[in-house]
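To fix ideas at the outset, we first show an illustrative case, written as a sequence plus integers encoding its fold:
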Amino acid sequence: MKNRQNHIQIYSEIQSGRLKFAAKFFFGNVGKYKVRLVFNEADLEPETPTISYSHRPVNDNAYHIRPAAILKEKTIEPQNIELDTWNDLPCFFTTEGTDLPFDVLGASFYLVTRYEENLPADKDEHGRYLPEQSFASQSGFLEKPLIDLWFCKIESVLRERFGVVSGREFRFINTIDVDSAYAYVEKGLFRTSGALVRDILTGKFKEVLNRINTLFMGKKDPFNTFQYVLDVNKKYQFESIFFFLLGDYGKFDKNVPYTGVKFRALMKRVNDYATVGIHPSYHANNDSAAISEQIERLSNIIHMPVEHSRFHYLKSGIPDSYRALVNADILHDYTMGYASKPGFRASTCSPFMFFDLVQNRTTRLKVHPFCCMEGTLKNYMNLKPEAALKTFKQYTDEVKSVQGTLYFVWHNDSLSNQSPNEGWRDVYRNLIQYVGEAGK
């Protein structure tokens, strides 16, 4: 057999946009194989390792997966799912394939496209899909990158049978949301005066002193933790992405004005050492025009195209929010995760292209799923810093075990060590060190 390292061919009678996406996602995005799709037996290359995604094995040596119905369908309908077990892992869409007892492509497609989120569902007060409603949460595998675990089991068989080698390797992408760049400076006379009076009336005299020392005595603003993040990440050579909120001031959008001199200089400086992305405002989640306006503001400041995005409040609805990003020419989104629970919302720790289920097509938007946010542990789960660090380490170990890509969400203000964030800078520093060691 000709050794082509990581080349495989997938044979199927199903010629659908869903099948093409699922095959390239599972064996290409997750598996890092070079994938060739074949729909005619005569076109099969005899020396290339073959996956037979069909009701019969295409040849004696092919790895056989029998299809369920989902990749042949064109509509979005509630699926009748019964949970089963394979190799100690949960599975569903059980079939009678000779090598695999379930349709891993159909199951992966269901999870990664967030099929269930395209159906009617209850939302929280911010219009976000509730993690408790998800199949992963109800079935007990939300905390596992199940798709990647499936692949690792299958990869060991393909390696033994064909000699093909996956190109997976552990990566860490550090991401910082900048909801408010500064605690005190660049807030304007009206906001600053109002905050000062409120603090005096409520007896927050330490806050009054901090504000005065920062505004008039040259003390560094406590939320200005950007150089600290850059220095820590430089030590371990991690890639960092900062998402800046540039929407107009509102109830849920309380950053400093994007016209502020110091704020603009900050974004320019951060852009010299890291990737800068847009943090679309609370009400822009389905509005491509508003997203485009905020992108233009940022692009004019950093003098570069803006291709990366994460929605403020993680406020995104599928498919409308992702369609808005596509229309605004965003190429990478980092919103795929839950605000109230840690875990793998799309059941994977591998980036993937957004598949529009209504239009049954793969878009040009790449989705980068995160698994844990410090705000979740701090504000929703009320964990102390020590317990939070343990949780972060558990997710690091999960992703490392499958050689996946690890994304965490942090906010610049959490690193201030100012109430209510005491101790969280230590969590971040220890976490980055732990991730650095895990990557060796």
Q: What stands out?
A: DSSP finds 13 helices and 15 strands in the chain. Residues 171-183+221-438 form a domain with the TIM Barrel fold (CATH 3.20.20.370). The first helix runs from residue 17 to 30.
